[in-house]
Amino acid sequence: MLLPKFEFHEPATVEEACRMISELGGKMKILAGGTDLFVNMKKKLLAPDHLVSVDRIESLAQLDASNGSLRIGSCVKAAVIAESDAVKSAFPALHEGASKLGSPLIRNLATVGGNLVSARPAADFPPPLMVYNAKLVLKSSQGERSVPLTDFIHAPGQTALLPNELLAAVLLERPAAHSGSAYIKLGVRQALEISLVNVAALLTLDPSNGVVTGARVVMGSVGPTPLLSVSAEKALLGEKPSDALFSAAGEAAASDSKPIDDFRASAEYKRAMVRELTRRALASAFDRVQKQ
Ligand SMILES: Cc1cc2nc3c(=O)[nH]c(=O)nc-3n(C[C@H](O)[C@H](O)[C@H](O)COP(=O)(O)OP(=O)(O)OC[C@H]3O[C@@H](n4cnc5c(N)ncnc54)[C@H](O)[C@@H]3O)c2cc1C
User: Do 212 and 115 belong together in one domain?
Assistant: First the structure.
């Protein structure tokens, strides 16, 4: 399958890219690693006249960890995130998400920005980034704004990004002390698999009495967008961790999920998997708090 014809642009800076994006308007698509965009172009779902490649803009390819916060440039590859010691130690659910995305070849091309803007319900980056309350930096020739990831993804393929904006970076704050987190992806195969269901979880405990003071559970592939389970959070807050509590939180998350029957699995099976993956992700997050 051949790609449709297009004109290729390779700006050297974010400012130049923003200028091109607003000048070229709706006939243009931003190109990062191309693992989603080229597939859609080959399938003739998209035929942009211009591609603005942002993949070689140095400032977008940097991952900076300092003073407990993390700034991930939008063009940082999944492989770089998976291999970062700073990510692995402070944001283990993100490490797990990046490590499970596609294959080594795909991870060497796929960027975090492309993954978020593609806004696929089964994508591996949104749930772990959402449990860490990620904020996105969106830039245009008019300036920049910050949007919480929870408000960014509106529907499959639809986001809060305006036509003249590019996603510049993802910002994360290190979770509070005595926190643990984990991400679990279930697919039909072991590798190169889009999630059937995925769950990210974060727990924060009060060290004086062991009670849960913070909790977040985010589920992917069981709704049009990744879903934050308010019921699971309610079930966990103020309680002491136990297998029974994690199972109850799993029940609560399953009740918040909105899976549909499709060729990959029934809604009933996916709901059962939310229950089990939430239980396991919370148990793993708790285990990590205890090992600190
Ligand atoms: C074989 C295969 C396996 C895969 N497996 C997985 C998997 O297991 N898990 C998973 O989550 N995904 C998977 N994917 C999907 C894909 O690899 C990811 O979504 C990837 O992260 C997209 O990033 P990219 O850099 O390739 O984006 P691109 O394809 O370059 O762009 C994707 C979209 O984002 C826009 N865009 C890119 N960067 C920016 C920016 N900075 N600002 C604004 N808009 C931007 C583009 O215009 C386009 O609309 C797979 C894909 C393939 C082909």
Answer: no
Atom 32 of ligand 1, residue of closest alpha carbon: 114
Protein residue whose Cα sits closest to atom 40 of ligand 1: 167
Ligand 1 pocket check: which of 39, 52, 115, 190 to mutate, most ligand atoms within 8 Å of Cβ? 115
Q: Write out the residue range of the structural domain in which residue 20 sits.
A: 7-53
Q: Which helix (H) or strand (E) holds 159?
A: strand 158-159
Tell me, what CATH number does 195's domain have? 3.30.390.50
Q: How many DSSP H helices and E strands does the chain contain?
A: 12, 14
CA–CA gap between residue 249 and residue 92 (Å, rounded): 21
Query: Around Cβ 177, how many Cβ atoms within 10 Å?
Result: 10
Q: Do residues 33 and 18 share a domain?
A: yes
Q: Quick one: which atom of ligand 1 is closest to the CA of 117?
A: 34
Residue 225 lies in a domain: yes
Cα 198 to ligand 1 centroid, rounded to whole Å: 18
Which candidate, 13, 56, 53, 5, places its Cα nearest to that of 29? 53
The protein residue whose alpha carbon is closest to atom 5 in ligand 1 is 102
111 and 86: one domain? yes
Task: State the chain's mean pLDDT as an integer.
Answer: 95
Tell me if 2 is assigned to some domain.
Answer: no
CATH of the domain at 28: 3.30.43.10
Q: Ligand 1 pocket check: which of 58, 106, 188 to mutate, most ligand atoms within 8 Å of Cβ?
A: 106
> Based on the domain organization, do 70 and 41 belong to the same domain?
no
In angstroms, the CA 47 to CA 27 distance is: 8
Q: How far is the CA of 33 from the centre of ligand 1 (A)?
A: 7
Residue segments in the chain with a per-residue pLDDT below the cut of 50:
none
Whole-prediction pTM: 0.96
